[in-house]
């Protein structure tokens, strides 16, 4: 997820600590490869390369992910698994703070110092980073036979101007979580349409079994765009025209979809007004605390919801595709972070070795089991252990692989800010059409330039 943009943006000062962490690593690398390390090597009568038992040093910057295991532990496993490369891990904020993650990466990649050597990126940043020349083309390292081992859709998402500029890591999409016991209590089935969801949510609220009917993410952040893509696409609408040269956020179907979101708060009252300030975790917590009937969120929630130590509704949660409008089809926003290699890295072979390990079937299975994130390799979905421990992934395999992308444009960083601002104003003020007209005009001026 990305809600930053190239260059400085309001609030960019929040990224200073992150950029400073990467700066320290850059300075440390210069020192180690410069006079400090050289002098030490000469004094000991051995080549510079002798440091760290001859290992090549690289850095890996990634957003923080929640799960049973941390990314740092996975990186440590790689370091222990071989003796050629040593990876220093730099932890960035979680994807819910994607503005900060994006800005930290932009500031570093634009300097072309080679740090970080490897990074993880939201799928919507791929075109931007590749177009700026910051991401290394990977075709020569991962040929057609290797690329064929990943889902075609994720490979396509990692491709810019016919070149592979990112490597698939994981795929994700929005989905609907529901309380199986509450639906059974009123004799209801999981909703297929938004009207069904409203009726069921209201009935459960009326019964007094839940405080909230439906929780979603309305914070002025990237997740709002994700929720928006889903509800608009489920009504047959879109945010950009097919050629990507103009906005369609103010057409009839898009307006009706945004009005529906506003109505969940003000009309049907199945959502609290607090959703307008919530991203993923604040919306997840009331659900796993047993206070809500339905929740729109990502795949990571499943593992938490079924963990008795973290959830009061363990064993009472189901997952289905998101509802749609009458005459429409269910739509799930394509999410997921992918790997990238800094075009300025001085350690290409080491970076590729690390990515080969990180993208292997065994490591993807590990990520699925420990962090609850879906593999981009079809073969991993067929693993017996995955089927036993994360059965919902197999159930929603078609949802993961057929998800709806956010607007595809090299100018996405600017487009998403315009969407977030305009839709947030529409939801807060209730002036849906007027605010969407204004936002659409700004979007069109961005993509048509």
TrEMBL record:
Keywords: Periplasm, Signal, Sugar transport, Transport. Belongs to the bacterial solute-binding protein 1 family. It comes from the Bacteria. This is Multiple sugar transport system substrate-binding protein. InterPro entries: SBP, TAT_signal. It holds the Pfam family SBP_bac_1. The keyword Transport applies.
């Amino acid at each position: 997820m990305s809600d930053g943009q190239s260059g400085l943006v309001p609030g960019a000062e929040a990224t200073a600590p992150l950029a400073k962490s990467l700066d320290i690593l850059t300075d440390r690398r210069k020192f180690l490869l410069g006079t400090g390390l050289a002098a030490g090597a000469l004094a000991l009568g051995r080549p510079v390369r002798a440091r760290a038992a001859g290992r090549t040093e690289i850095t890996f910057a990634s957003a923080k992910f929640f799960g049973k295991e941390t990314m740092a532990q996975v990186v440590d496993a790689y370091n222990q698994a071989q003796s050629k490369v040593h990876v220093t891990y730099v932890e960035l904020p979680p994807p819910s703070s994607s503005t900060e993650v994006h800005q930290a990466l932009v500031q570093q990649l634009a300097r072309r110092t080679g740090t970080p050597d490897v990074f993880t990126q939201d799928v919507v940043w791929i075109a931007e980073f590749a177009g700026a020349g910051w991401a290394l083309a990977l075709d020569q390292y991962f040929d057609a036979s290797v690329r064929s081992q990943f889902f075609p859709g994720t490979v396509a998402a990692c491709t810019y101007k016919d070149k592979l500029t990112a490597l698939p890591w994981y795929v994700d999409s929005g989905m609907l979580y529901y309380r199986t016991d509450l639906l059974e209590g009123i004799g209801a089935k999981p909703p297929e349409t938004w009207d069904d969801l409203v009726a069921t949510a209201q009935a459960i609220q009326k019964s007094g079994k839940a405080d909230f009917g439906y929780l979603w993410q309305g914070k002025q952040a990237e997740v709002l765009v994700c929720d928006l893509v889903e509800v608009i696409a489920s009504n047959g609408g879109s945010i950009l025209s097919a050629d990507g040269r103009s906005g369609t956020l103010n057409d009839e179907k898009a307006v009706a979809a945004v009005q529906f979101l506003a109505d969940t708060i003000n009309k049907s009252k199945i959502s609290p007004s607090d959703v307008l300030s919530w991203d993923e975790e604040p919306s997840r917590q009331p659900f796993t605390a047993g206070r809500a009937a339905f929740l729109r969120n990502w795949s990571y929630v499943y593992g938490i919801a079924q963990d008795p130590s973290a959830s009061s509704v363990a064993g009472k949660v189901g997952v289905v595709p998101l509802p749609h409008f009458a005459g429409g089809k269910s739509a799930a926003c394509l999410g997921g972070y992918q790997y990238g290699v800094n075009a300025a890295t001085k350690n290409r072979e080491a970076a590729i070795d690390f990515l080969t390990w990180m993208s292997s079937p065994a490591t993807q299975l590990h990520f699925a089991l420990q962090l609850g994130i879906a593999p981009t390799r079809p073969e991993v979905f067929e693993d017996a252990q995955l089927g036993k421990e994360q059965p919902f992934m197999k159930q929603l395999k078609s949802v993961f692989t057929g998800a709806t992308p956010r607007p595809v444009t090299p100018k996405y960083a600017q487009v998403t800010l315009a969407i977030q601002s305009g839709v947030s104003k529409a939801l807060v003020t209730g002036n849906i059409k007027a605010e969407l007209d204004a936002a659409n005009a700004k979007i069109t001026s961005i993509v048509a330039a």
